[in-house]
Design a protein that fits this description.
This protein is mostly helical. It has a domain of 41 residues. It is 45% helix and 7% strand. The chain has a two-stranded antiparallel ribbon. Helix 2 runs antiparallel to helix 3. It is elongated and about 75 Å long.
Length: 97
Amino acid sequence: MPRGDPLRGRHERPSSSGRKPGQKNRATRELRGLINGFLQANQENLGVWLDQVAEGIPARVVDGRVVHRGVAPDPARAVELLPKIAEFAAPKATALR
């Protein structure tokens, strides 16, 4: 017996098909796993990178040539980056009803 409305061509899916509401799809779970692995492997570097953003990076000159023009200090940007990075390491808090 066909399901759905035969005149409109719509079919109902069984309630057991697909993922549960709120569950991430496989690609999202795998990407989050890769990012978490990267963050785990670079825990020490993460602090260094945030310090470099906050304090800036001086210009480098080798043999009279500028090989890196440097980066201006931006402590506000470092503060903005931290929660964005943490978003990948921990699930977002959601309000419970």
